[in-house]
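Tutorial, part two.
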Amino acid sequence: MATLKAILTRRPVAATIRLTVPAGGATPAPPVSPALGPYRVNLMAFCKDFNARTQKYKSETPMAVTVTAFKDNTFEFIVKSPSVTWYLKKAAGVEFGSGRPGHETVSTITLKHVYEIAKIKQSDPYCQYMSLESISKSIIGTANSMGIKVQKELD
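Running the prediction step on this input gives:
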């Protein structure tokens, strides 16, 4: 239970905004400015902080960001790793998933690829307490729904 001091020092939240921004490529232009502008968030401060946090990723890597804008015009944000579908498409070497998953296979990946993606996704805030096995099962399910076949080893 929260203490009285913690309750009294909470800042009122104006909005919670979810964005997908390229790593190291946040600029005070669309898609950032139309999303954050109405909440009077300092766009340059957000762009500098975001680009500093995502400089270890290759540019043009789509990063999911959750921005919490407060009523006093301040903000906090959480950067998540790229989506599983993006990693699967990169590992499989395809640009799009299957139009008819289950009927046609677009590409094939190995369990080693799945394990590497699971290790990366385990650092996400929502997956940090999940086992590597359960994350891997989720990734295999996503691959199947994209028309990407998962094998033990490539032939």
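The beta strands are 13-22, 62-70, 75-80, 107-110, 148-151. In part three we will examine how such features are distributed along the chain.
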